[in-house]
Amino acid sequence: MKIWRHFFINIFFLFNIYSYLYNMKTIIKPENLRFLFREKNNNGAEFTVKSLKTNKDYTFKISRSLWNEKWYTHVKVEQGYQDYKRLGTFADGQITDKKQVVDTPAAKAIAWVLRQISGGDYSKLNNNVEIMHTGACLVCGKKLTDAESIEHGIGPVCRS
User: Fold this and answer.
1) Does 18 map to a domain?
2) pLDDT digits 0-9 by tens, 75-104
3) Between residues 106 and 4, the one the model is more confident about
4) Dihedral (CA of 144, 146, 150, 156) sign
5) Distance between CA 95 and CA 103 in Å, rounded?
6) Is 15 part of any domain?
7) Is 141 inside a domain boundary?
8) Tell me: the pLDDT tens digits for 8-29?
9) CA neighbor of 73 nearest in space, from 105, 98, 95, 103
10) Quick check: is 20 in a domain?
């Protein structure tokens, strides 16, 4: 009887640990995404945006580049695990690809998020979405290793 009791206690304990780790999220403050619009090359900030209304989420990779003295914000969306598809470029409040507006749900979602960030309206973001980072710096894309950096979503060099 003791063996079964210990068995069930251990199963219960492992289930609780699994549930905790599975539900653990690294939610970042939307205002930390303002660094996406710095005038510097960005190799691919990765983050997930989850709607609080619909529970729908998308994972994006955002990069920046300078071309002909103008900064461009490029957007990719995850189609499958670590399989990113180019959505287009964020300009004038929308995502465009080859001068055509991209009208997919993912494009509309990230365009809305980027409009709020570029306008500094973080309260709308806080009230409507959760933004979770993937453990990589939102500015340079390097892996985050210390607690403060993980909490902010930005490494110490990029924060300064």
Assistant:
1) no
2) 999 998 778 999 999 999 999 999 999 999
3) 106
4) negative
5) 8
6) no
7) yes
8) 455 544 444 443 333 445 788 8
9) 95
10) no
